[in-house]
Amino acid sequence: MLSTGEVACLGENFADAFSKALQSAEFNIPPKGGSVFISVGGNEERKKRVVPIAKAFEEMGFKIYATAHTADVLNAAGVNATVLYKVKDAQVSPNIMDYLQERKIDLVINVPMANRQTSYSDILTDGYVIRRQAVEFNIPVITNLQLAAALVDVLKQKGQNGNSIRSLNEYMDDLPWKLW
Hints:
By secondary structure, this protein is of the alpha/beta class. It has 8 helices and 5 strands; from the N terminus they run H-E-H-H-E-H-E-H-E-H-E-H-H.
């Protein structure tokens, strides 16, 4: 699994195991009080699914940035989101490319539209360019809301996660049943 960067970890709970997995995959867990950029493709209903995640980030002290339509949905739901203009509006400020290059963003949540047929002309969509630019500047990118929600759980319990190191046998000894 080395080629895809997949890891498996054990922990006291899901957030602990997931925190260890992120660390072992060299995922830079954003610091509390950092900044997160959110962009969700598709209609307003899809964008509304990110609201609880954005609220959780905001409650932890994160600055929220978003593309225009995503920011509209977040602001309507009471999340203070600052609009960053897309790649095609690179001359307009503030724009996402400048913020990524200046490392003003600690995490990118970019959820592309589902079931979209990709053609050669679609390869350089704004979402693709944003994700690619973030990767080039070593800014973590999340492309689905389930993973973003799991990361929120990790951040909420950050001081308690990833500190215990136990062997597989020690975990097995805590099970109510044993086969050996």
